[in-house]
Amino acid sequence: MEATKPVKPNNSGSNVRGIKNAFLVIIACFIVAVCLFLFVFGHPSHFNLEGNLEGIDEASLPSSMFFSNINAHPNDLVGTIFKGGVIVPILQTLLLTVIVLSVERWIALRSAKGTGSITNFVKGVKKCLETNDIAGAQALCKKQKGSVAAVVSAALNRYEEMDKNTVLTKEQKIATLQKEVEEATAIEMPALQQNLPIVATLTTLGTLVGLLGTVIGMIKSFQALAASGAPDSTELSTGISEALINTAFGIATGAFAVISYNFYTNKIDNLTYAIDEIGFSIVQSFAATH
């Protein structure tokens, strides 16, 4: 009995491109968030400085209000955001990270989808399989590109190899073809889901960090109320601002992360369904014609 030769997979890597190191994205977003907090939200133009500059040379006033020895009242919402405290840049970092990774996933999944309609591509390949037109199916893959086309192309290559193979039995050929579809799919799936676990983590982390800022702000408010004599209205308003601003940023981060995660998970499920459908069709076509 002649020994069967192992068949090597045709795949070498995924065609989907994306950001491989999300940690660098987080660092970059943190730097941007701190700069926004100090030099945009904390700019003196957003605060009422009258009566708060006694003994201070206005010419030497820093470009941001992070030197908190000046108790200035905000003139607008931007200044109010600055009054949210040190938790604000952390929340801004989380929100910016969600936005950047969402845009990155949009670009990556568009490349994974390919150049045309997935539905039409699947129908076209099925028609080619019905007439055993493997060359025509491969031409559709080259035109479509993307993850689905990559899996189909790998399966069709194995299809042709099994068609010419005179050593393996029909059952072994079908098993080899099924394994090829599974391996090709396994190569593409991690690239499709890349960075989504981070977005999923931020759905909870953003809310929790916002809650932390809320608690800190409320502690400051109650400290102002507990002060002897008349309560310090400035300290009280600062504490309430910190609590509400952090709550708003936390809710916004969590909500946007949930929407983004569910949206892209649904897109990946659609791609996976298309891969499974056409992979099953290839295996069934081989079984029916051999």
Description:
With 290 residues, the protein is mainly α. The chain is built from 9 helices and 2 strands, in the order αββαααααααα. It has a two-stranded antiparallel sheet with strand order 1-2.
The average pLDDT is 83
**Helix share, percent:** over 70%
Rg measurement, Å: 29 Å
The termini sit apart by 22 Å
Shape by Cα distribution: rod-shaped
* Low-confidence segments: 1-11, 65-69
SSE arrangement, N to C:
HEEHHHHHHHH
User: Which structural class do the helices and strands define?
Assistant: mainly alpha
Which keywords apply here?
290 residues, mainly alpha, two-stranded antiparallel ribbon, 9 helices, 2 strands, 72% helix
Write a compact overview of the structure shown:
By secondary structure, the protein is mostly helical.
Topology, pairings included?
Blueprint: H1 22-41, E1 47-48, E2 73-74, H2 77-82, H3 87-113, H4 118-130, H5 134-144, H6 146-164, H7 170-193, H8 196-226, H9 233-289
Antiparallel strand pairs: 1-2
Helix pairs in contact: 1-3, 3-8, 3-9, 4-5, 4-9, 5-6, 6-7, 6-9, 7-9, 8-9
